[in-house]
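R.M. (postdoc): so does anyone remember the format we settled on? I'll just put the structure tokens first.
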């Protein structure tokens, strides 16, 4: 009997220690349960696209995760972005489009700015909701090539280049573009521009020539975009939430689920700083410039 009592006490003590440890970790923020794994009932998954679009991986991962979660009945993508890199914007658009085509409603909600690449992303949704004062549009592509040729000449720096082809050093900061290079760059961004315009015309059900008339880089208000057929409704974030719930068949005000972002440790920050320093050093070694190639 005594041995059984000690075993029982031992088991209770282990369980109590486990509960206390769990609560302690929770209070310290070292353990955060995944909201998706504990969510019950019908939910809307919130995906945020904020700032300049540089990488698509975190956003696409959230879209795919929500797309596979049966408890998530619709996806709401909140956009606060002036645009950014071409490929990441295309990847986010494709991820939203894929979820939409699989039958899960997708609603885009525009905040202060959802322009160029931000608008490209929104085209992947079933419905786009913009505030009347949202800045959107800016359909176009840009490439910048800094030119320090005159500065280098003044301070006596001469750069010698050995290359295997005519265009290998195109965009060098040490000289201006040649006419042939300017034509090549024009053809390149012209192709990306055609891709952008085609997506807008296809997704919005507009004539491609009509889209080209406003696809000159101009920025539009939400109300102007609505009048041109670039957005579906004028409304707030809350209006977009309610619309997503309506499209998903959720009665009443839907619950919105947003995956908690992972906490960043001191080691993560040090690693990021080291990575930035390495990247900067690499850029300087390659003439200290990176070509801007973006949707904005």
């Amino acid at each position: 009997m005594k041995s059984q009592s000690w075993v029982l006490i031992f088991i209770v003590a282990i369980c109590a220690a486990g509960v206390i440890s769990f609560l302690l970790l929770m209070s310290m923020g070292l353990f955060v349960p995944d909201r998706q794994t504990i969510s019950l009932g019908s939910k809307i998954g919130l995906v945020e696209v904020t700032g300049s679009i540089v990488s698509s991986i975190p956003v696409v991962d959230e879209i795919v995760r929500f797309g596979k979660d049966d408890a998530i009945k619709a996806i709401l993508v909140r956009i606060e972005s002036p645009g950014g890199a071409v490929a990441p914007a295309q990847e986010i658009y494709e991820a939203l489009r894929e979820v939409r085509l699989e039958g899960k409603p997708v609603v885009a909600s525009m905040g202060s700015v959802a322009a160029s690449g931000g608008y490209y992303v929104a085209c992947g949704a079933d419905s786009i909701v913009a505030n009347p004062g949202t800045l959107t549009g800016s359909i176009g592509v840009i490439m910048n090539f800094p030119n320090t040729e005159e500065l280098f000449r003044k301070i006596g720096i001469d750069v010698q280049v050995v290359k295997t082809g005519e265009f290998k050093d195109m965009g060098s900061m040490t000289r201006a573009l040649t006419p042939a290079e300017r034509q090549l760059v024009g053809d390149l961004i012209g192709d990306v521009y055609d891709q952008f315009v085609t997506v807008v015309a296809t997704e919005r059900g507009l004539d491609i020539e009509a889209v080209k008339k406003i696809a000159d880089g101009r920025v539009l208000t939400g109300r102007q975009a609505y009048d041109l057929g670039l957005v579906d409704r004028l409304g707030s974030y809350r209006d977009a939430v309610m619309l997503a719930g309506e499209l998903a068949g959720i009665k009443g005000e839907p619950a919105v689920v947003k995956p908690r972002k992972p906490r960043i440790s001191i080691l993560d920050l040090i690693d990021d700083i080291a990575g930035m320093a390495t990247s900067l050093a690499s850029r300087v070694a390659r003439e200290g410039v990176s070509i801007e190639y973006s949707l904005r």
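R.M.: ...and that's the designed sequence above, right after the tokens. Also worth knowing: The CA atoms of residues 129 and 137 lie 13 Å apart. Residues 25-39, 279-292 have pLDDT under 50 and may be disordered.
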